[in-house]
Amino acid sequence: MAKKIKLKELSEAVNKCDRCHKSKCCQYVTQNIDKPTTMKDFDLLLWQISHKNIHIFKDDDGWFLLVLSQCTHLQSDGRCGIYEVRPLICRDHSNDYCEYDVSIKDGSDLYFSGYDDLNTYCRKRFKSWDKRFQKKSWKKNAAPMV
Ligand code: SF4
Ligand code: SF4
């Protein structure tokens, strides 16, 4: 399930959205992913994060792909172009304590912004990470060399 980032409740907020540069909550899409546990799981994530504008994070709600891409309905003045019929996830998003207060990165337990980031984490997490392709089970479905 996708989500808009909403962190712990605090308070304050009047006109916060008016001050929010580029409406931060309209600049991305999230998609929940299964919790990665095996080296193959992380190897797949490495492929995904190798693509432009794909980040990965983990917070209290689990693991997520983060696609950094501005919503096409965001107007140049920072307003929503389909405000009256905007999707439910946008309606439910509170500005009580949001991306304006803490970035997704700072609000996450784990945050990976690219291949090197995640690869470094995998090396620490799995002793045999750099030798994974030598494992029999990894070679089984390997494509022939060209
Ligand atoms: S809800 Fe938060 S992130 Fe979204 S526009 Fe308002 S202040 Fe910015
Ligand atoms: S539909 Fe509107 S509120 Fe929702 S992300 Fe797009 S611009 Fe923002």
From TrEMBL:
This is Zinc/iron-chelating domain-containing protein. Pfam families: CxxCxxCC. It comes from Ketobacter alkanivorans.
